[in-house]
Amino acid sequence: MFLKAIAAAAWVIAFAVLYTRAWDQHNRDRRWSTEANNRLIYFLEAAGVFVLPEALATVLFIIPWVRNFLEKANWKILYALTWWFQSRTFVGRGLREGIVDNVKYSLFWAVLKITRIQFKWHEFFTHTNRLAVGLMWAPVVLIYLMDLQIWYTIFSAFVGALVGLFSHLGEIRNVDQLRLRFQFFSSALQFNLLPRSSCSRRGGRCGASSTTRSTG
């Protein structure tokens, strides 16, 4: 990404310089002279070099198996040729659609641009498009319900915390209760965390001491 930013900045400077030189020559000659045309050609040649990687990416999009091969390959020579439009991320590598799917996708959008098309399709509900509208909104409703479940979980946790706060669940009201909690802490820690074998070797003191203190 750092190299791409440097390359983009270099292209911006190059285009600005070439474009300015072409118009400066045009303004000095007050017409498109031979020198002005040559400088304009330099600008167009630079634009062609700039578009070349994008054109290569378009060709690879049309031929997806070549792009899949380039994405899966880790050869440095291939990466040097395709670094501009291909990153070395391992997420979704080699998962391009096939050429048949690309052709279908392109033809679908091309047909949509054609006007005055007479088409007929079976209508479950005559003179209405309720089914089509329902099918279009069904995924949106499902995603909304999924988000609603997530927000319900957050809301229920928040409400539970408020209920516990106002119901004084587990509340320590004074310093004496706090001191009592610290007295039970060590025995509860030993009883809950130490393995059974250590308690048995000690003659069952873990369970006995904690039970005695708890009942006391």
UniProtKB/TrEMBL annotation:
TM stretches of this protein: 46-66, 150-169
Lineage start: Eukaryota, Viridiplantae, Streptophyta, Embryophyta, Tracheophyta
GO MF annotation: an example:
glucosyltransferase activity
This chain belongs to the protein called: Callose synthase 12
Give UniProt keywords alphabetically. Answer: Membrane, Transmembrane, Transmembrane helix
Source superkingdom:
Eukaryota
| A GO cellular-component term linked to this record | plasma membrane
